[in-house]
């Protein structure tokens, strides 16, 4: 067994995080550079150090879980969601249940709440936002952002849903109340069910084809009839019919019957 494989086995035993389901070349490159930066020539002694030092462990986890996000990431896709996808769902639903999977620091679920609120009252919007990383979830719950994260947010929306204090913006409490943040590992935990919309963007690219295959099946099962799956802008699904998905628009898939 290679040094790297032994390392990922030890990490799995320690943290429950299965790095064998993440694309190897990419992950190995990132971790080799971190390991070397910390002065270790190989993964064996690096694991011994991580095992004893909470700060090194945290740094390692941060490296694995690439957390970048922003409000309205790839704005043209959010426009399709707002103008085409959600109005169709609105015809069939007086209430909407949304799952933002791998939500990072919260920009994505808050964007979802804002956009859904163009069609549903806040009381009829229920968003579950999950991530594997408890640190980003804690920041997401706070809902405080630097203006950089809001560069794609229209001024009228900023005024309506945020409180500005200097360079920072705080999400309004009423919007926050539509969202429940929870820890969830897409590769290991049970999936919720009966979702009208699942948004999972900019994380599947890190997983192996085999892991993605299982995840797509799980997402398909987690959707209600006519539910919609929204993926990231480099994450089109190959042969979506095998998961009971039909293409609604680029990066949007409908569970079987929706057109
Ligand atoms: C690049 S961010 C994407 C954030 C947001 N979805 C977006 O598109 O802006 C990737 C997120 O995936 C999370 N992640 C990585 N592996 C995961 C797993 N196995 N289960 C759940 N979340 C995971 C990371 O913690 C990170 O917050």
Describe this structure in words.
The protein has 259 residues and is of the alpha/beta class. It has 2 domains: 3-64, no CATH class; 75-255, Vaccinia Virus protein VP39 (Rossmann fold). Helices cover 42% and strands 20% of the residues. The chain contains 10 helices and 10 strands. It has helices spanning 3-15, 24-37, 43-52, 54-64, 75-92, 107-116, 134-142, 155-161, 173-176, 209-222; strands spanning 96-101, 125-131, 144-146, 162-165, 168-171, 179-183, 195-200, 223-231, 245-249, 252-255. The strands form 2 sheets. It has a 7-stranded mixed sheet with strand order 6-2-1-7-8-10-9. The chain has a 3-stranded antiparallel sheet with strand order 3-5-4. Strand 4 (162-165) and strand 5 (168-171) form a beta hairpin. Helix 1 packs parallel to helix 3. The protein is globular and about 60 Å long. The mean pLDDT is 95.
Summarize the structure.
The chain has ten helices and ten strands.
Based on the coordinates given, report the CATH architecture of the largest domain.
Answer: 3-Layer(aba) Sandwich
Strand content bin: 15-25%
CATH topology of the largest domain: Rossmann fold
CATH superfamily descriptor of the largest domain: Vaccinia Virus protein VP39
The count of DSSP E runs of length 2 or more, i.e. the number of strands, is: 10
